[in-house]
What does this fold into?
Amino acid sequence: MNSLFPSDVGMSHVRGVVKIIKENKGNISISKLAEESEEDVDDLLPLIDACRLLGLVKVTRSRLKLTEKGETIIKGSTRAIIRQTLPGIEPFKSVIKALQGGSRSTSELLEYLKEKELLTEKTETENEKLVTMLLTWGVRSKLLSYDEENERWMLVG
It folds into this structure.
């Protein structure tokens, strides 16, 4: 079973975590990362999970080790790496599948993800978080496009 990408994680936060790991010779304990990032461990866990899902870090017990892909992100090719990686991570994987037949409205896309059981709680908050995540990650990485006026999602290229 695929892990679901955390909805409350931003690209700049991921880059920040990767940068701190790099500054620590590519290997750091979660507690030291919490100290250096001035974040609670509970707040770091979704960030660490996002880094792991994107293939930027390997997590072993309570240590994080930067991968080759993680090293590359620091050099500035963030968008390209994320664009290559997201299609293998849920909910992006299912969103891409849903959009292969053409554009969909936000409500159609949310309904499709509910049918796939990728939305666990059918709340407005969860829906908003998902839409924000698709905008933050999918649109910024140029994997998806969103026509705000017509409220339609499409695949890019």
Q: What stands out?
A: Helices lie at 11-23, 30-37, 41-53, 68-74, 78-85, 92-99, 106-115, 124-139. The chain has two domains: 11-74, 90-155. Residues 124-139 form the longest helix (16 residues).
